[in-house]
Amino acid sequence: MSFICNHCGETWDKHPATQVACPDCKAKVGSPCVRPSGHTLMYGEVHIAREQVAVDTGLLSKTCPNAPRPPVTPTATVVERKTPKVSPKQPTEQLTLF
Question: Can you tell me the distance from the alpha carbon of 20 to that of 53, in angstroms, rounded to the nearest whole number?
């Protein structure tokens, strides 16, 4: 099974995070992560904590360095509108209610 980066398409024979031990399931370096039942995770995935350890040790980057950059969009300038203060209208007639 090979692993493919969703951003740039780079492939690896083993998941890069398997270069460190997993703090969740205690899988050793080079071994796949396992569930509490002892079965391996689907599709050769690894626990998030293992990926974080790989990022923290510099074996895996947090973002793909080869990922295409999103297009630059201009930022909008927010203009605050000032509404004029309007005094309440005084009634021109006075009604008497019975």
Answer: 7
